[in-house]
Amino acid sequence: EFKKPADAIHYRQAVFEVMAHNFADIGAMVKAKKPFDKATVLMRAQNVATLSKLPLEGFIEGTSSGHTDALPVIWENKADFEAKLTAMQQNAAQLLQAAQSGDEDAVKQAFAVTGKSCKACHDLYKKD
Ligand code: ASC
Fold first, then answer.
1. What confidence tens digit (pLDDT) does each residue in 82-93 have?
2. In CATH, what number does 5-55+67-125 get?
């Protein structure tokens, strides 16, 4: 439970921020901005997969005003929003599997798929 709406907003933003930091480091490696290090990719992918399960809790009704980019349409389309969030979690789990396999091409592909599922939600439900 959150004491006030702003706490729910802050919670989900904190989760997304830590997710983005971890996801971006995998991105730097698959885009060859830095050397591909299997152990680091695995650690990052574990973090992303775990964090992917957390933000939904923060999307409580009445938290689309104030310091947030979340659009009110989320709560008019909550089933679709949750389906897209679930797809992202499944893709993050696939990314973790790829990281566990150590196969760089598999990581690259799973990274791209996961990024698309981040964007799918942002396109509809996040302010630009
Ligand atoms: C990221 C990040 C996102 C997604 C998105 C993918 O690294 O912070 O929100 O990827 O940009 O299109």
1. 999 999 999 999
2. 1.20.120.10
Hey, where are the domains in the chain? 5-55+67-125
Helix ranges (H only) for 31-103 are 38-51, 78-101
Nearby residues of 102 by Cβ (< 8 Å), 6 or more positions away: 38, 42
Contact residues of ligand 1, CB 6 A cut-off: 20, 23-24, 27, 115, 118-119
In tens, the pLDDT along 30-77 reads 999 999 999 999 999 999 999 999 999 999 998 999 999 999 999 999
The question of ipTM being above 0.85 is answered as: yes
Instruction: Give strand ranges (E) for the chain.
Output: none
Cα–Cα distance, 128 to 125 (Å, whole number): 9
Between the CA of 123 and the centroid of ligand 1 the distance, in Å, is 11
